[in-house]
Amino acid sequence: MPTPSLHASFIQSRLPGWIKHLAAPDIEALNRARDPVQRFQATYPEAFAAASPLLRQALIDSGVRRQASSQALATVLKDLKGITEFAEPLLVEALRKRFGVAPDVNGTALFHMRAPNRLEQQSLLQAALRNFEADEPFDEVALQETSALAPAGSLEQILYDESQRYPFAKVRYHVRDKLAIKPAEFADLCRQLDLGRQYQQHLSTVFSAPASTAQVRRQTIEANKDAWRVHAHTARMRSVISASAYAALLAIIDGMPTPRLDGAQVTYSQLNLLGSDVSDLVIIGSVSRKPLPGLDTLIDLFLPQAKLIKPLIGDSRIIVCIPGDPLDPIREYASLKAFATQLAIKLRSPGYQRFFAGRLPLDEAQTFLRRLKSQLKTNRWNPNPVPPGPNYNPAAFASGMYEEVWSDDVDLHAKEAFIETDVFAHLYDKHLERVTSNARLLAVPTAQVDHDAWRNRLKHWAE
After folding, report:
1. R_g of the chain, CA atoms, integer Å
2. Which end of the chain is more exposed for a tag (fewer CB within 10 A), N or C?
3. Alpha carbon separation from 330 to 99, 155, 236, 358, 401 (Å, rounded)
4. Is 385 a member of any domain?
């Protein structure tokens, strides 16, 4: 293990508290966003060198502009706190007031035993954010142990002597160094503290206060436009967008009244893939791609055979914008189908899956990934296979075998929703909606817990 730098403790003291909760992919995303112009020059030196002096200067200027607008946005949002940064001191203070002690809420765990042998373990901070039902049971016994609060790592599994072992298992649980705080008392404190409700109020104060809401909205949109401008320049340098698409993008970013593509006014849409709305992803295309109101109904009524060609109607070239995308923040495609095909290939990468899942509603990400992974690979017959290894009999594979390969026929069930308002205003509204919705899932208000419990009871009675 390398020796820590002499400055390590000082640097750690200067880092914001939320840094410790980031995973490696989150830190990598922060690095990408810190200076995209410099990163582009390092990643694509040939493309930068081959660009015209005018385009190179435009990229450099856009980077300076983006940096300024990002710093201005950070100033406007200086009071915004992440969930853990917001909740941790409130929970510590509440524990001190109620019980006279302030345990480490990250290093102390709630060991929640559920009969006959199921255990749920999470830190006090995680448990407080998840919250509890009013009648949450803590008196169940799992392998001869009951629920308790104790330092993380305090759970022991003690082996039974063969002659005296417990009928259901060869081990029993034992929690060492239990806190005097009873789990039911901790749950009651969490319900009254209601970190989820308080965090929703915090978000409302930052984003919706009458004195600042217009400024936050305006500065966020400005920062988003400047990020798009950088991506447009780099996409043009990489030749992943044409000159006409590049011109249309700049017209959109600069707020021109009627940006055009392929001789027609542009239109914007967002996607639903595998049943989930993808936020931040925007498709730009000619207005001819947008179906006329009622057209689908007329086709179904009078030209039922046309259902086979409806998916191809208006499927002309598009520009896809996914800010933050590690591969293609902006890229041009011949059609929506061409984009979906390339996206399916990108989604073979676990790293890209993590990135893309971050653009989905938090409670839908796992379902999306499960549906995706069920399609990514298929079994294909190989008449001339290479035997798997020395432990296998080559003769067993002489006539061929099925091999698991990447599927070329992934169906993402892409559905477009066309945007009827200003595209950047729409993106801001959708982003804020996702922030508050995801926060409600990560820090659950007590009222939401009670409402969900009530609905579950109704469902149980109905069945």
Report:
1. 28
2. N
3. 54, 50, 9, 18, 41
4. no
